[in-house]
Amino acid sequence: MKTTTMQEQVQEIIEDTTPLFTNDTIVFGLLMIALGLIFYTSSQKEGFWASFYKIVPALFMAYLIPAVLTTAGIISPEWMSVSETGSITEGSSSLYYVSSRYLLPAALVLMTLSIDLKAVFNLGPKALIMFLTGTVGIILGGPIAVLLIGTISPETVGGEGADAVWRGLSTLAGSWIGGGANQTAMLEVYGYNQALYGGMVFVDIVIANIWMAIILIGIGKSAKIDKWLGADTSAIEALKEKVSNYSLEKERNPSLTDLMVLAAIAFGTVGFAHFGAGYMSAIFTDFVNGLEKGLTRNLFTFLSSSFFWMISITTIIGIILSYTKLRSYEGAGASKFGSVFIYILVASIGMKMDLMLIFDNLGLIAIGAVWMAIHAGLLILIAKLIKAPYFFLAVGSQANVGGAASAPIVASAFHPSLATVGVLLAVFGYAIGTIGAVACTFLMQLAAVS
Predict the structure, then answer these.
(1) pLDDT confidence of 237, banded at 50, 70, 90?
(2) Closest Cα to residue 191, out of 155, 159, 148, 156?
C-alpha cells in the first residue's frame, strides 16, 4: 500500500501559483511598457485606435491590461511557491504598496498645487449628497442582497457563531463605506472566523474592482450620461477652465531647476506626510486603545490608521501650497507629473485583479454583485432626481467603495484639478465608515435570520 508523506499532501493541497515574472523591477517595466503603448495608441487621431478609444477610455485600459497579465499568470500581486521537496514560500509584489504610499501622495500634492479651493466649494452640495447616497446604498444594499440570495441559496448566507456569513459581510460594509481601518474594526467588533476572512477580502477585491472598471468606462461616455441625467455641469466646467487657463498662462518649457523643485515639492511632501502620519497614528493608537472596548473604540479606529493621516496631511500641504508662489509650478507641468504617478497607481491596482477569481466562490460573489447593484441603482436614481453630473456620481461612489486610493484616480480622470474633491470625500468616508458599517451589519443580521 502506497503511503503519502506530509510534504506530498501539502503539495496536493497547495497549488504553486508562482507567476512568470516575480522580480518587481521586471514587472514595473512591463507595466510601464503597457502604459506607454496605451498612451501612444490613444493619441492617434484616426484609424482603428481613434475609434477604439472613443468607446474604451485609456484609463480603463491602464487598469485592464495588468489584470489580464495577472490572470494569464505573467505577473501577480502575491503567490505561493512549492519546491520539489515540498517546502512552501510565500511571495508578493511591493508595487501597489510603493504606488499607494509614495506615488499617490506625490500625485495628490502636485495636482492640488493649482487648486482653487473656493471654486471647489462653489461646486455646491451635490457632491456631498451623492457621497451620502452611496453610503446609504451600501447600508441598505447589504441586507437586501442577503435577503435575495438567501431566498435562492440559504446556505450561502448561513453559518453559526463566528462562522456566520453576516459577520464576514460586516467587513465588506466597513471597507465599502470607509476603508481598510474600518474593515479591520468590523472584523474585531463582530469576531468573524479569521480562517474564513480571506473569502471576504476576495469578494471585496473582485466586486470593488469590477465596479471601478464600470465607472472608468462611464467616464468616456460622461457627456452622454450627463445629458441623460439632465445635469448642469457648468460649475465643474468653470473650475476646469479656470485651472486650465491658469496653466496655459503660466506654461513654460520646464528647466532642470523646475523639475528638481517639483521633485522636492512632491517627495518632500511624501516624506513629511509619512513622518506626520507615523507620529499622529501613534498618538491616536494610544487614544483609541484607551477608550472603552467595543463600539466606542472601533468608531475611532480610523484615527490610528497611518494611511488616513498620510492622505490628510498631503492634502492639507497641497492646499496650503496652492496659496503660495509655488502654485506657478503648474505651468512647469506639476499636474502632468501627478497624472503619471496616478496612472502607475491604476496599473498596480489592476495588477491585483485576477479575472478568474470571479468563478471561485459564486455564492459570495452573487451577494457582492447584488449589493453593489443596489448601491449603483440608488446613485443613478438620486443623480437623475437632483440632476447631478456623472462626475459627482462616480466620485461619490468611489469615495465610499474605493476610498482614498481610488477616489482621486476617478476624479482626476475628469480633470487633474478635481482630484482634491475625491480626496476630501474619501477622508469623510473614513470618519463615518464604522458607524455606517455597524448599521448595515445590524440589518444584515436581521435579514440572515429572517
Answers:
(1) confident
(2) 159
